[in-house]
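Dear support,

Our group has been running a series of protein-ligand predictions, and this particular one with zinc ion is the one our PI (initials K.S.) wants archived with full inputs and outputs. We had some confusion internally about which version of the output was final, so please treat the block below as the authoritative record. The input we submitted was:
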Amino acid sequence: MNPETKICTKCNVEKPLDEFSDRQHGKYNKNSVCKVCISELAKVKYVKNKGRYRANNRKWELANKAKRKVISDRYKNNNPEKVKASQANWRKKNLDHVRLLMSLWRKKNPERAREISAKWAKNNPGKRNARSSRYKATKKQATPLWSEIPLILELYELAASMRAEGVKVHVDHAIPLVHPLVCGLHCYDNLQILSAEDNLKKHNKYTP
Ligand SMILES: [Zn+2]
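Confirmed final output from the archive:
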C-alpha cells in the first residue's frame, strides 16, 4: 500500500500524494518534485531562456505558417476583446513603427487610403480639423524618403531581433518627431536604437 504523503526533493516539504504529478516508475508512481516546485522551475527556466523560446517559436511559426494561422484564427475567434486590446496596446507602444507602416501602405494604396480617410473625416468632424493641421505641420518633414525605407526597416528589424534576444530596446528619434520647438526627421540619420530604459528617461525631452 502507498503511504498518503511523500517528501518533495526540492522544497523538502511532506505533502499529500495528489500534490505530485503521476510519473510511471517514480516512487509510488509519482514525481519526486511537487507540482508547486515544478511550476516554479518551469517559470525560472522560461524567464532564463525567454529569448531562445521566442526564437524557437518564431522558427516553428515560419516553418508551419498554415498551422499557425489555424491556431491564431481560432484564438482570435474565441477572444475578440483580448485580441483587440492587445493590438491597441501594441500600436500604442510602437507608434513610430505604425506610422511608418501606414505611410508606406498609403503610398502603395493611394485610392483606398483616400476613401478611408474621407469616410473617417465624415464620421469624426471635430477630430478632423485638429488632425489635419497637426498632420500638415509634421507631414512634410516626418515622411521618410523612399530611398531610406529599406535602411529604416532594417533598423526596426534589428531592434526587434535584439528584443527577441531579451535586450530591451526601442527605436528612437534622436530629435523627436513631434516637438513644439523642433520637428525631428523620420530619416535614417535621425533614428537610433536606445535601451528601453534610456528611451523612457529621455521621453521627448530635447534641448536644441
Ligand atoms: Zn516542492
